[in-house]
Write a structure and sequence with these properties.
Order of helices and strands: EHHHEEHE
Radius of gyration: 18 Å
Distance between the termini: 25 Å
Mean pLDDT: 91
Largest sheet: 4 strands, antiparallel
Number of helices: 4
Helix content: 25-40%
Length: 154
């Protein structure tokens, strides 16, 4: 059995011991989108929603969530993130808000979960702030698109 497993010899869940792994520069990027009615997207893009700067609040929520990933995802290591960037872009042709999050760390384990959490929480925040206008919005296609660093590299 590998030393890097979430199970002990009895099959019980444990946090992987990464203490012997070298600290290296690691980064991960995740994306996702929120699909909505064209009128909702136009309101967001124009800053016309009563709740204010929806994209700014969603960006901040994503950054804050990345920093707290270990509190949200069982067995996830708490990491001292060195960078978190969350970008949101309106795409009127597809009637979606595209979300991209990139997280960085110098440490013994990667930041894939932090990037995915940032996108997820930014999407949920966007949904929450717009649900009164468009309750049929859909959060979709959240996925890891890039990672670098560590033993496996890119």
């Amino acid at each position: 059995m590998s030393d890097l497993t979430h199970f002990d010899p009895t099959g019980a869940a444990v946090m992987v011991d990464v203490g012997a792994k070298p600290a290296t520069r690691r980064a991960a990027t995740a994306t996702g989108r929120v699909r909505m009615a064209p009128a909702t997207l136009a309101l967001i893009d124009a800053g016309g929603l009563a709740k204010g700067d929806v994209l700014g609040v969603a960006r901040l929520a994503g950054i804050m969530a990345a920093k707290r990933t270990a509190e949200l995802i069982p067995l996830c290591h708490p990491l001292p993130l060195t960078s978190v960037r969350v970008d949101l872009a309106c795409d009127p042709a597809a009637s979606v808000v595209e979300i991209t999050a990139t997280c960085g760390v110098t440490g013994p384990t990667g930041v894939e979960m932090e990037a995915l959490t940032a996108v997820s929480v930014a999407a949920l925040t966007l949904y929450d702030m717009c649900k009164a206008v468009d309750p049929a919005m859909e959060i979709e296609a959240i996925r890891l698109v890039a990672k670098s660093g560590g033993k496996s590299g890119r």
